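Student: I would love a firmer grasp of how sequence relates to backbone shape in proteins. Thank you; the sequence and its tokens follow:
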Amino acid sequence: MGTTAAIVLVVLIVCLALFAVVRSVRIVPQARAGIVERFGRYHRTLYAGLNLVMPFIDRLRPLIDLREQVVSFPPQPVITKDNLVVGIDTVIYFQVTDPKAASYEIANYVAAVEQLTVTTLRNVVGGMDLDTTLTSRDKINGELRRELDDATGKWGLRVSRVELKAIEPPVSIQDSMEKQMRADRDKRAAILSAEGAKQSAILTAEGEKQAAVLRARGESEALVVRAEADATAQATRARGQAQAIATVFRAVHEGDPDQKLLAYQYLQALPEIARGDANKLWIVPSEIGKALEGIGNFFGAGPPDDNSKKEEGEEEEPTAEHVLPAQRGAAAEFKGGSDGTGSLTRLTPAKE
């Protein structure tokens, strides 16, 4: 009996020792922290890793998460400065920095942060009108974060960010805002359309101006080119005429024509000179008299018949054969027709 009792006692002692060892070893995960209480009082804080505590004396409280936490609160009714009720959704990002303060300074820090956020939000938005609230989200976020960070510092918390998810004004205000936005869009559209028409008119006027300038410049250049072409053509014609006259003059002098040929050529030129309906009177130079002396002999013409002249009652007119040899200068009257033909009607001796 004594041996059996001893064995049982040894087994009990070993089991108690093993249980004590198991109870004294505590493994804390990463980003967690544990509060150790000895005899009900705070003893120390356990961080990530292997930790040893006194079994049956120390008590480990539930582990505290040290990571940044995100808490979203339901929409809260807030009254603005112009007495309009708006619903605001809030999201808060905070982190436990002091596990001891978070365990002993506040019973439920999540609920405390929610209530503090609602109170601070009403204080901040209550001093703004609706338009300022809708357009000043960054300002509201900054003020909320600063107020919450100051208030939760003693709780071992650090508020990193506060975001407003949505701001919902009343339905009547939403309808008015939509109408105002529609009117603003129509106004901007009208302004843009007017500016577009203005720019189009300006560009059109500038294009017409440039086209007129280019057209005038082109016409001026065309006139200059045409004038240069006319001048070149006239110069070419003048050179051609000069060359033709020089050629004729050289041919005449080289051919050495006699008086009969010159007289014939002069008679050939008289119809061209007399072209027209009216009678014309020319003063024949005295130098041409010699050339006209052989006209009668060239054509073989004799003196007119006196009997025929007398019968018709006409006066006898001197011919070129009778007049020209005796005169060095004479006046010729030539009657021309409209068809370019003509006839020599009278030769009058020139006065000396």
The CA atoms of residues 199 and 217 lie 27 Å apart. The longest strand covers residues 85-96. Residues 301-352 have pLDDT under 50 and may be disordered. The chain has four domains: 19-64, 68-169, 176-220, 259-349.
